[in-house]
Structures are given as structure tokens and as C-alpha cells.
Design a protein that fits this description.
Layout (H helix, E strand, L loop, with lengths): L4 H12 L5 H4 L2 E9 L17 E3 L8 E6 L5 E8 L7 E6 H6 L7 E10 L1
Protein name: Endolytic peptidoglycan transglycosylase RlpA
Function: Lytic transglycosylase with a strong preference for naked glycan strands that lack stem peptides.
Keywords: Cell wall biogenesis/degradation, Lipoprotein, Lyase, Signal
């Protein structure tokens, strides 16, 4: 069986082309994170509790768990996405006060972090 050059070229292009889906693209990343300690309702409908290990992300599914690591000190925390945000340019996550405290970023207000999905 022979393959036409145009078919082979198309197959090579399809194999070489990166596939990008929003959930795959957001599965891991690095950027700035801030923290917040409100008690209002979150975008998921639950009440924000600053003492819980939660976070806001612009597009990850509610309930997604992330491992978030402070790039400055190597401390990590596991958070659950329950809100939308942050809405400040250049920021990738808003952490609850408890989560921010766990990774040592309360006093600075924000920090460079890297995150990865541990389940979805």
C-alpha cells in the first residue's frame, strides 16, 4: 500500500501540530498569586471561608485540586478551586488566606507560584 505524498505530509502535520485545550493548557503553570479573605459567596455558590485551603482560577473546573508551590521558598499547599479570578493582570491564582499563610506569602501580599493539577 502506498501513501500519496500529500497524505503523508498531512499526517506529519497533524502529528507534529500541538493540541491545545483550555483544560490542558491550564493544567500547570507559573505566575503571580495573591490572596484574599472575604466571606462572601464564591462563583461556585459556596461561602468563602478564609480558613479553608481554596483558590480562585479563571477557568479550571470547580473542585479541581492544585498543588501550589511558592517559587521563593519552595513551600507547597494543596488547594481546591471554588471561585473565579484573579482579575488583576498577570496573576494566575487568588489563594485563601490560610493557603497563602501555609506557603509564606501573607506579608508580601503576592508571590510567584507554580501550580499543577493533582486531580480534576
Amino acid at each position: 500500500m502506498s501513501v500519496k505524498p500529500s497524505t503523508a505530509a498531512l499526517a506529519a502535520l497533524v502529528i507534529a501540530a500541538p493540541v491545545t485545550f483550555a483544560s490542558v493548557a491550564d493544567a500547570a503553570g507559573c505566575g503571580r498569586a495573591s490572596w484574599y479573605a472575604l466571606t462572601s459567596k464564591t462563583a461556585s455558590g459556596e461561602r468563602m471561608n478564609p480558613a479553608h485551603m481554596t483558590a480562585a482560577h479563571k477557568s479550571l473546573r470547580f473542585g479541581t485540586k492544585l498543588k501550589v508551590t511558592n517559587a521563593n521558598n519552595g513551600k507547597s499547599v494543596i488547594v481546591r478551586i471554588n471561585d473565579r479570578g484573579p482579575f488583576v493582570r498577570g496573576r494566575v491564582l487568588d489563594l485563601s488566606k490560610a493557603a497563602a499563610s501555609e506557603i509564606g506569602m501573607i506579608s508580601s501580599g503576592h508571590a510567584k507560584v507554580c501550580y499543577e493539577i493533582i486531580n480534576s
